[in-house]
Specification:
Blueprint: H1 5-11, E1 18-21, E2 25-29, E3 39-43, H2 55-74, E4 81-85, E5 101-106, H3 123-138
Antiparallel strand pairs: 1-2, 2-3, 3-5, 4-5
């Protein structure tokens, strides 16, 4: 896509600090890191949302993310823990509409928190939700 910043990076029309790449995936430093070592992993093919992505590509995205996490933990960059963050859709906080997995090194003192209200569902409500999701999984092309 012409107006996609990540596609411009993949095409070589915008600068990036590449951590890793192959024919399908690119891992790079983010322009606005939350911590030192904050990496984005993207598919090289423009994919606006997870629903547009092939399962194999999604698996490879997370595989590269896992390898980047291992490298961060082995490096001198502080990484007592690692968060993966992927926002899919505007309501989830997606700002760049090209799938991207954040690999975020964490420390006990970094003050980054994912906070919000928690629901207090009973077992019947959880069983109902599980049934709704299971029905969709079993009755669609998403079946395992």
């Amino acid at each position: 896509m012409e107006d996609c910043e990540f596609c411009k990076i993949v095409a070589g029309d915008a600068p990036s600090s590449v951590v890793y790449q192959n024919d399908r995936i690119l891992a790079m430093m983010t322009l606005r890191p939350m911590t030192r070592g904050h990496v984005l992993v993207i598919p090289k093919t423009h994919t606006a949302s997870l629903s547009d992505m092939e399962y194999k590509a999604g698996g490879e995205l997370f595989e590269v993310g896992m390898k980047v996490a291992e490298a961060l933990r082995a490096s001198e960059i502080e990484s007592e823990g690692i968060n993966f963050w992927l926002a899919d859709g505007e309501a989830a906080g997606q700002e760049v509409f090209h799938v991207h997995l954040h690999v975020l090194p964490r420390s006990a003192t970094d003050k980054i928190r994912l906070e919000g209200p928690r629901l207090d569902l009973n077992r019947s409500e959880m069983d109902s939700d599980a049934g709704i999701i299971k029905k969709e999984l079993m009755g669609s092309e998403h079946e395992f």
